[in-house]
From TrEMBL:
Record carries keyword Kinase: yes
Spans through the membrane: 12-34, 162-185
Protein name: histidine kinase
Domain HAMP, chain residue ranges per copy: 186-248
GO molecular function: kinase activity
Pfam families tied to this protein: HAMP (PF00672), HATPase_c (PF02518), HisKA (PF00512)
Xref: InterPro entries: HAMP_dom, HATPase_C_sf, HATPase_dom, His_kinase_dom, HisK_dim/P_dom, HisK_dim/P_sf, Sig_transdc_His_kin-like_C, TCS_sensor_his_kinase
Natural source organism: Streptomyces purpurascens
Length: 498
């Protein structure tokens, strides 16, 4: 991750630096204020001692408010400011001590800086022209009023030195802390930088190409769920997996669509070519084919093409998600009728109906569509089993579900076709050759079954082994009428072989 002005690292360092600087400034200010209060308290104590001493000396001559003999006494610090006040509080005399010299009498302008100070023992800060800043207090005893003050130069010098020391130490500390923070932030943001680099590589990857793998991924070390960067890396990897899965699914869908269009075109072209050929023969009026036979072949191919087109239209409608017509459908009557028709159409196989009813076999849906699904299952058994095969259509009804099962004892479905048996144009014979118009079907029958079941909120399944193949269609039950008795366990004339 670069250190550009807008980068996360730069913003973090600036904000951390600002926070550290604010903390250091606050600590320095607190230290200066605390030291100033301590020094002023100590200076005020000295000023009070000097004032008490001066008041004791001045009290020896209470009648002379111009007497300033007390600054000349021993024990006074250099720079002591002393003043006498009259009864109105006006300064009558003022002087300041000097080392090894006589006290210096204050001028009128300097005395003016002391006006308004009440002799009540409260310390005040006053700036005396030519002398500097003083800490001054006043006392009053029996009409004797004096002022005493000491310069604040020592306090200011100490505070100035403290500020310089704190500034130097603070700057050095901020520099060291900034370097440490820069190193720590850089190391902590490395995983995020690698994740960002992976995201940039992914953005440059040719996602529109047919390549299904090879997209850049975040390293396993950068997907630790215990850190924010790790969670981002893991989420990016999941997104990449989803992208590759979607690309694979899209490619598979495109391949299936191309296969679907090719198969549909072939399935439509074959009967159409046959119809055109026989029509040309009949138009000529001569040929090896009798007109009646030609008309039968034309009718058969037309019916085949019509059925294929109807199946395609039905699948298209179901793919659009159109809800089927809703009406109460009795599965027993539906399956029984389909078995009767299969038995009439194909007497070479044994067709049976089995009922296992613990509740009325009622569902809500489109009776025509459900009938087509059952008919397709029986037609599939007829097309892919040899003569003499026994086909059983069973209806199961419980309180929770309704199930239609079609099983046979034929040779079974090849293992490699089981996973795609409900796909469109899936056939046991992958070639497109046909020996006759009814051979092997178009490969849409089971796809229609699966689409109809899904449209009714149900599902399909298949199990197959040599000697036992079973297709299952499970549907949600309809709400049974209160007190309605279950249907009989057998339907006369269908539960026995014919």
């Amino acid at each position: 991750m670069s250190g550009t002005p807008g980068s996360l690292r730069t913003r973090l360092l600036l904000r951390i630096g600002a926070a550290l600087a604010a903390v250091c400034a606050a600590m320095a200010l607190a230290a200066v204020l605390a030291q100033r209060a301590l020094l002023l308290d100590h200076l005020d104590g000295r000023v009070m001692d000097a004032a008490e001493h001066g008041l004791a000396v001045a009290s020896l001559r209470p009648g002379d408010d111009r007497d300033l003999t007390f600054p000349a006494g021993n024990g006074h610090p250099d720079g002591l400011l002393a003043a006498r006040l009259d009864a109105r509080g006006a300064v009558t005399a003022a002087a300041v001590t000097r080392p090894d010299r006589e006290p210096l009498t204050l001028t009128a302008g300097q005395r003016a800086a002391l006006r308004g100070l009440a002799p009540d023992g409260t310390p005040h800060t006053r700036t005396v022209p030519g002398l500097g800043t003083y800490r001054v207090t006043g006392l009053d005893a029996s009409g004797v009023q004096i002022l005493a003050g000491l310069p604040m130069d020592d306090v200011r010098d100490v505070l100035n030195r403290l500020v310089v020391v704190e500034a130097v130490v603070g700057a050095a500390g901020l520099a060291v802390a900034g370097c440490v923070c820069a190193v720590v932030v850089r190391r902590q943001l490395r995983p995020l930088g690698r994740v960002a680099a992976t995201a940039a590589d992914l953005a440059r990857a040719p996602l529109g190409h047919d390549r299904l793998t090879g997209l850049p991924r975040v390293a396993e070390a950068d997907t630790d769920p215990g850190s924010e960067a790790g969670r981002v890396g893991a989420a990016l990897n999941r997104m990449i997996d989803q992208v590759e899965t979607d690309r694979a699914a899209r490619r598979l869908s495109e391949e299936r669509m191309r296969r679907f269009l090719a198969d549909a075109g072939h399935e439509l072209r074959t009967p159409l070519a046959s119809i055109v050929g026989y029509a040309e023969l009949m138009n000529r009026g001569t040929g090896p084919v009798e007109p009646m036979l030609a008309w039968r072949r034309v009718s058969a191919e037309s019916a085949r093409m019509t059925g294929l087109v109807e199946d395609l239209l039905l699948l298209a409608r179901l793919d659009e998600g159109r809800p089927p017509r809703s009406a109460e459908v009795d599965l027993v009557a539906l399956v029984a009728e389909a078995v009767r028709e299969a038995r009439a159409a194909d007497p070479e196989r044994t067709w049976r109906l089995a009922l296992h009813l613990d509740a009325p076999a009622l569902v809500i849906g489109d009776e025509t569509g459900l009938g087509k699904a059952v008919a397709n299952l029986l037609a599939n058994a007829r097309a892919h089993t040899p003569p003499g095969t026994t086909v059983v259509a069973a209806v199961e009804a419980t309180a929770e579900r309704r199930v239609i099962r079609v099983r046979d004892d034929g040779p079974g479905i090849p293992t490699h076709l089981l996973a795609s048996v409900f796909d469109r144009f899936t056939r046991a014979d992958a070639s497109r050759s046909r020996r006759g118009p009814g051979d092997a079907g178009s490969g849409l029958g089971l796809a229609v079954v699966e689409a109809i079941a899904s449209a009714h909120g149900g599902r399909t399944a298949v199990r197959s082994a040599p000697g036992h193949t079973e297709f299952t269609v499970e549907l949600p039950p309809a709400t049974a009428t209160e007190g309605e008795p279950p249907l009989p366990a057998e339907v006369p004339g269908l539960s026995e072989q014919r």
